[in-house]
Amino acid sequence: MTARRILSPILFFVAVLVVWEIAVRAFAVPAYILPPPTRILAAFFVHLPLLAAHAGVTLGEILLGLLFGGAGGLGLAVLLYSSRSLEQALHPFIIASQMVPVFAIAPLLILWLGYSVWPKVAVAALIGFFPVAVNTLDGLRSTRADMLDLFRTMGASRRQTLAKLLLPTALPSLFSGLKVAATLSVVGATIGEWVGARRGLGYLMLQSNARLRVDLVFAAILALTGIGLFLFAGFRIIERRVLHWTAHDRRSE
Amino acid sequence: MGSRTILEVNSLGKAFDVRGVRLDVLDSVSFSVSEGDWVTAIGPSGCGKTTLLRVIAGLLEPDAGSAVVDGARERRLGVAALLPQSDTLLPWRTAIDNAVLASEIAGVPKSRALAEATGLFEHFGLSGFETTYPWQLSGGMRQRVALMRTFLSGRSVLLLDEPLGALDPLTRASLQEWLLAVWSELGKTIVLVTHDVDEAVYLSDRLLALTPRPARVLATWSFDDLPRPRSRTDLTFMHRRAEVMNLLLEGTT
Question: Which of A195, A236, B34, B210 could hold B215 in an S-S bridge, CB 3.0 to 4.6 Å?
Fold first, then answer.
């Protein structure tokens, strides 16, 4: 059963690649329009040092973006949870902030923060903070009323209730938010690099595209996908370790 | 047993507003408890027993009358320890970390709290389970950990809301024995609410019978004529149990 679960997606993926390869060769599609998978794979390995150097820059931007976006989202969630009036005042703006296309403000961020890594970090953080804030707020709100009452009868301060009850309760939701943020911040950093950069996988993609090196564009996409998967898996592993007590609930579901 | 009055409930009244309809829950309930005594309030389900405990604990303010716990009238939160009816162990804490939660919040240094708890684990029939998580424990064991947390809170008045209600009869009977042993050893004052007549007569020094909602004190008994350890097959015991049962039945119809 598990063998089949692992095997079927692999078989599907291989089948797609084979059809792709055959189609490109059969219709003689030029490599600067759509290269066959073998050529992309070759480009990936031939240019591995180049890709790794650019990937390092992009990964750095993503991680910093996640750090700031995650911390900002968590902080905002705690703030909104503790103050009803603040939540009512900010709620429309938080929703509206998600309607602003981050793509559109990326040039402004370049203007303000220069060609450094910071505009990319800012775009990644801006995209990543929303799912973290929304999920964490939901998590905080899911705290059981009888537990909150229990803490009150123990004479717990606000800080004690936050540290010993609210945050641990919200932790699973925080991780859900971080996993979404991780995939989104890959997009964010790439957009940031498209708008203006001298390094990074987004920059490499633009350069390769301009020089009709579509195989290298695909190789960069492959690397970005790898980074996204790596981050997602990383959070999952940390989540399982930290949230060991939810393993039981998962099993009984 | 000491003779100092540690809990004084005076013509307590409480009503809730349920969608615009006034619902009287407590109607001039009065009683007092001497230090070290075990007082039980018994009444039919939904009569307001839990509300009574919540008012005493300070989670609710009375509409009429007053509750004075250990000298505190206005700010009662944190004065008495409440054991709620629901399962209130924190799933991310081990048994021992759950047991010390109340004393940890009260500011007892963690090492001292842990040392104190370790000594009590055997007493609570839990030795060997210190580092076990709640989901790995049976219902009876979880309830003992919760009781341990209540006993370790450092408070002298313990409010127990049907602590044995959700357990099977065998576990229930053995926990009653054990609760009596812990109580006489640790010299706490206990206010128990239950709907189980047998349990009430078996455990208490004094018993208040409450009417169906709104709860009024229907009758009170002192079980001075039932020396401890009590026997359920003792004639006086059976007589008392029947007396309480009959009165409650009359009060309900």
Answer: B210
**Residue B97 — φ and ψ, nearest 5°?**
-70, -30
Tokens 């910071």: give the residue. Answer: A118
Structure token pair of residue B86: 């629901």
Contact indicator for A40, A222 with CB cutoff of 8 Å: yes
Q: Closest CB to A245: pick one of B77, B104, B133.
A: B133
Measure A147 CA to nearest chain B CA, in Å.
6
pLDDT, greater one: B171 or A214: A214
Cα A137 from Cα A84, distance rounded (Å)? 12
Reported ipTM: 0.91
pLDDT-derived band at A175 (thresholds 50, 70, 90) equals very high
pLDDT for B213 equals 84
Estimate to the nearest angstrom the gap between the alpha carbon of A56 and the chain centroid: 16
On the 0-12 / 13-18 / 19+ scale of CB atoms within 10 A, A185 is: buried
The reported pLDDT for the residue numbered A252 is: 46
Q: Rounded to an integer, what distance in angstroms lies between the CA atom of residue A218 and that of residue A227?
A: 14
| pLDDT confidence tier of residue A40, bands split at 50, 70 and 90 | very high
Q: Are B9 and B60 in contact (CB under 8 A)?
A: no
A253 touches chain B (CB under 8 A): no
Produce one character per residue of A105-116: b if its CB has 16 or more CB atoms within 10 Å, e if not. bbeebbeeeeee
Contact A164 B92 (CB under 8 A): no
A248 pLDDT tier (thresholds 50, 70, 90): low
Does residue A144 have a pLDDT over 50?
A: yes
The mean pLDDT value for A151-155 works out to 94
How high is the pLDDT of residue A1? 58
CB A135 within 8 A of CB A80: no
C-beta neighbour count of B174 within 10 angstroms? 14
Angle (CA) A91-A96-A100 rounded to 5° is 150
Q: What angle do CA B64, B30, B47 make, to 5 degrees?
A: 80
Residue of B93, B105, B149 to mutate, testing the A interface (most A Cβ within 10 Å of its Cβ): B105
Q: Are B82 and B53 in contact (CB under 8 A)?
A: yes
Contacts of A194 (CB under 8 A, 6+ apart): A106, A202, A203, A205, A206
Average pLDDT, stretch A144-171?
Answer: 95
Best CA proximity match to A120, nearest among A227, A38, A193: A193
Instruction: Quickly tell me which residue has 């039945």 as its tokens.
Output: B249
- Mean pLDDT (chain A) is 91
Bridge partners (DSSP) of residue B221 are: B207
Q: For position B90, what pLDDT does the model report?
A: 95
Classify residue A210 by burial, with Cβ atoms within 10 Å: 0-12, 13-18, 19+: exposed
Percent of chain B, pLDDT > 90? Answer: 61
Of B148, B3, B12, B141, which is closest to residue B68 (Cα–Cα)?
Answer: B12
Is A163's Cβ below 8 Å from some Cβ in B?
no
